[in-house]
Design brief:
- The complex is a heterodimer of chains A (about 425) and B (about 150).
- Chain A has about 425 residues and is α/β, with parallel strands linked by helices.
- Chain A folds into three domains: about 210 residues, NADH-ubiquinone oxidoreductase 51kDa subunit (Rossmann fold), CATH 3.40.50; about 80 residues, Ubiquitin-like (UB roll); about 90 residues, de novo design (two linked rop proteins), CATH 1.20.1440.
- Helix content of chain A is about 40%, strand content about 10%.
- Chain A contains 19 helices and eight strands.
- Chain A is globular, with a radius of gyration of 22 Å.
- Chain B folds into two domains: about 60 residues, Arc Repressor Mutant, subunit A; about 80 residues, Glutaredoxin (3-Layer(aba) Sandwich).
- In chain B, helix 1 packs antiparallel against helix 2 and helix 2 packs across helix 3.
- Chain B has a four-stranded mixed β-sheet with strand order 2-1-3-4, with helices on one face.
- The chains are: A alpha/beta (about 425), B alpha+beta (about 150).
- The interface between A and B is large, with 54 and 41 residues.
């Protein structure tokens, strides 16, 4: 099986430099793309059914198709890569940026061309120092080779690319938060519509795509939409980087067909639980997804199938809960993160999450009362989609709602016994 | 006053953006790299250079976890306390660090050598528990490994 994302990644070795990358076929996709009309590339990506790998699963080609094109479009137009990977439990984009930085740069150039962008930003997370070094080198080499800058490869297309390394805030990974942060404002959401594709950075048309999403574009351009779709087990095209961490035998990231089942990833890639631990549940795609149980192991890990389970594919990096870890403690940790990182713009999130955290803290230390479960439940409604400007708030209560459903007896036991029975 | 060196590096950042204000976070990092943290005086220096009010720039500075508005030590330890590290031994590492350094999370050692900060998921969950010291990520931590790491920083 072709591996569009990880084919050039050599574990425990320096990534390819640009010459090696070119010898491996790198930058051929850009050459081909520049022979095509931008809208043709948009159509190809649309036909490939490439879904947004940042977690929302929105079709990338469709997003691109909303960008005003041609001479009428307001300029400059912007393309931004969301590399602000900060979803707890997620470490997939780091693999791509550290392992094949040239792929990330080439992908960004092609995607920028497809929407006729003038400037591209790589919005990188503060903590990813090694990614920053490697992307900086890959960009500099791309400029030297004429893949970036004025009149790329002798065509009329020009693109400037900049690395922005941020300073640490979860909200910068939200599309509008990212745009505000790039403008030097606090990362807070924006009122939609208008969407960024028409009114984005400094009011100009802007596309934001996740690193893994855009990294698929060279393969699609080279091999076509049909080949990309054929890599998948479902209607959603391509492969997916699946990851797993927690008390399993093997942790890591694997590139597998989109729609590989949860059970396959857990048993075959991760090798099941570490010795001495039993499986309780998992979050399939980062902290802001709902818990799933063993009964869900046959479910396919694609966006549509995961939605049917009541959870979400999210980032596709699984966090496993074992039988020696307290689910209430785990929830407290997750909600502590969300409460700390809330940008404060919307009341349900700003006020609700600290309340959730405090309530969980009380239950965890044995001071909970039966009514607390109702208060927690109420917040899963309070922060639901539509009550806040951005989707991070509903995400923050996804693990909460599902934990109340699947691990209710643990919550009740804490309240009845006034203690956490997982503590030694 | 910003030094010529600081101005030059901020100017390199300004090229990337359409407005001066957009360079705010990067400009603060340029100054922080040299001065260790962002004092009110430093904030004013940067704000004036970017033609912003200090209040506007402070609103941006304070929303970021790694723009320091208080003095910090020579080396910054960021210990991941998010879910996977938490489940795989964060507490033991934290207690060891606190004991070894004689400080709590959020504090600086008396000799100004280390500041210990809590950190959100550092994106290395497959190698938990992890921490960053200055620019370097350290994975699969144990108390012994933490001791080895700390000895590298003076």
């Amino acid at each position: 099986m072709d591996k569009p994302l990880t084919q050039n990644i050599r574990p425990n070795r320096e990534p390819m430099d640009i010459a090696e990358y070119e010898r491996a076929g790198g930058y051929q996709a850009l050459r081909k793309a520049l022979q095509m009309a931008p809208t043709q590339i948009q159509q190809m990506v649309n036909d490939a059914d490439l879904r947004g790998r940042g977690g929302a699963g929105f079709p990338a080609g469709k997003k691109w198709s909303f960008v005003p094109m041609g001479a009428e479009a307001r300029r400059p137009k912007f393309y931004a890569v969301n590399a602000d990977e900060m979803e707890p439990g997620t470490f997939k984009d780091r693999l791509l940026m550290e392992g094949d930085p040239n792929l990330v740069v080439e992908s960004t150039i092609i995607a920028s061309y497809a929407i006729e962008a003038d400037v591209a930003y790589l919005f990188l997370r503060w903590a990813y120092k090694l990614s920053a070094q490697r992307l900086t080198k890959a960009m500099a080499q791309a400029y030297e080779k004429g893949y970036l800058g004025k009149n790329i490869l002798g065509t009329s297309y020009s693109l400037e690319m900049y690395l922005h390394t941020s300073a640490g805030r979860y909200m910068c990974g939200e599309e509008d938060g990212l745009l505000n942060a790039l403008e030097g404002k606090r990362p807070i959401p924006r009122t939609k519509p208008p969407h960024a594709v028409t009114v984005g950075l400094w009011g100009k048309p802007t596309v934001v795509n996740n690193v893994e999403t855009v990294a698929n574009v060279p393969y699609i351009v080279t091999h076509g939409a049909a080949a990309f779709k054929a890599l998948s087990h479902t209607d959603e095209g391509g492969t997916k980087l699946y990851g797993i961490s927690g008390r399993v035998k093997r942790t890591g990231i694997w590139e597998l067909p989109m729609g590989t089942t949860l059970g396959e990833i857990f048993h075959e890639c991760a090798g099941g639980m570490s010795n001495g631990y039993r499986f309780r549940g998992l979050l399939p795609g980062g902290a802001s997804t709902s818990f799933l149980l063993e009964e869900h192991f046959d479910a396919k890990m694609d966006f549509a199938s995961m939605d049917k389970t009541g959870s979400r594919l999210g980032t596709g990096t699984i966090i496993v809960l074992d039988d020696k870890t307290c689910p209430v403690g785990m929830l407290l940790n997750l909600e502590q993160f969300f409460a700390r990182e809330s940008c404060g713009w919307c009341t349900p999130c700003r006020e609700g999450l600290p309340w959730v955290r405090n309530t969980l803290k009380a239950i965890e230390r044995g001071d909970g009362v039966p009514d607390d479960l109702g208060i927690l439940q109420e917040h899963t409604w309070g922060l639901q989609l539509g009550h806040t400007f951005c989707a991070l708030a509903p995400g923050a209560v996804m693990p909460l709602g599902s934990a109340l459903k699947y691990f209710r007896e643990d919550f009740e036991k804490h309240i009845q016994e006034h203690r956490c029975s997982y503590r030694h | 006053m910003l030094t010529d060196d600081e101005k030059r590096e901020i100017d390199e950042e300004l090229v990337k953006y359409r407005t001066k204000r957009a360079a705010g976070p990067e400009a603060l990092k340029v100054v922080q790299k040299r001065r260790g943290w962002i004092s009110d005086e430093s904030l004013k220096d940067v704000a004036r250079y970017l033609e912003l009010s200090s209040e506007e720039l402070d609103a941006v500075a304070t929303c970021y976890n790694f723009i320091f508005r208080k003095p910090v030590g020579r080396h910054i330890i960021v210990l991941c306390d998010s879910i996977v590290c938490w489940a795989l031994g964060y507490r033991q590492i934290r207690e060891h660090l606190q004991h070894r350094l004689g400080i709590g999370v959020g504090q600086t050692t008396r000799d100004g050598r280390f500041t210990l900060l809590p950190g959100a998921c550092l994106g290395a969950c497959d190698q938990a528990p992890v921490m960053i010291v200055d620019e370097q990520l350290y994975v699969e931590l144990s108390p012994t490994k933490v001791d080895e790491v700390l000895d590298k920083y003076r």
